[in-house]
Amino acid sequence: MKRLEDIPKKEIFNVPDGYFERLPSVIQSRLAEHNQTSWKTTPVFRYSVRYALPLLLVAIGIFWYTNQSGGNNPETILDSIETEDLMVYLQESDLSTEELLDHLPLDAVDAEDIQDAVYEQNFGDNELEEIIDDIDINNRL
Description:
Number of helices: 7
Low-confidence stretches: none
Largest sheet: none
Mean pLDDT: 76
């Protein structure tokens, strides 16, 4: 069996001249490059871009769509009110038709649309009498 002292010592590896003097600056420059780009290559960043960003965009889209079709505009609110209820309210209020029309910016097309909508209402005699009776009862209260 050979002992460690019996093995001849040879220099197998050659180091270029000035290698160890340049080594610290090379290591520092590589670390600086790695630190600048490392956040882009981390798994958290990759997964957040791949999964979280599309989910966030879908959530924003759903929120935007529900707010657009949510029915908070005046036309949708007025459509939800029954015509009879609106007529009773207008009869009970102190506003005259002229006062209402003074505050509304109507053009000829709007006036024709209103006229057509009013004439399309087909109230029978019984329905008109009930509406008038309701108005009379409410005025007496």
